[in-house]
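User: What would this chain look like folded?
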Amino acid sequence: MGGFDVYCAICGSTFRSNVSIDSDDETDYTYSGDVIGDSDLEWLNTLCALGLNPDVPGERKSFLTGQGSYDDANAIHAYPGEDQNVPINPDREPPYYFYTYWDWIGDQVERPVFPFHELCYKEILLRCFKNEEINGDVLYSLCKELVDDEFTIKSLLLNYGDPMPPYEQYWECRKGEEVIQPLLES
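Assistant: Here's the prediction, encoded as structure tokens.
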């Protein structure tokens, strides 16, 4: 079994910026350079994740990792960031390894993390809450309810619109479905 992509829990897009633009390839698996223009796709590479750590003292059990990146086959590497609830392995150096959506290997089945682009979290989700604090425990429970362990371990069971996270192994670039930074500065 090879690897596969997982997708942002907020926007449903890829965590990889190495996309095909105006390829000479005969296939349709390329984005239009006219649409993407000079936009920076590096934002796709930077993620953070929401998780749950039932072993921490206190009422709040959720955590938000620091910056990280997608590894492959359902895993991310992330730095702990500033949240004290991030589980830290004293025998390892950061970044730490987490499984997303569902842990098919089996050692964290009850505690997957839900990844999202850092930009989607900070600039889209937080704006939707209009300066109200997000209850991470409630958000985590909601995300966990929107995962189907057996069939959809790459994104939440949401209608993200087009382009939808694909069922294929990896993200496919298609003209007319370009992904650009949602908050481009003019």
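The chain has three helices and six strands. If you want, I can go into more detail on any region.
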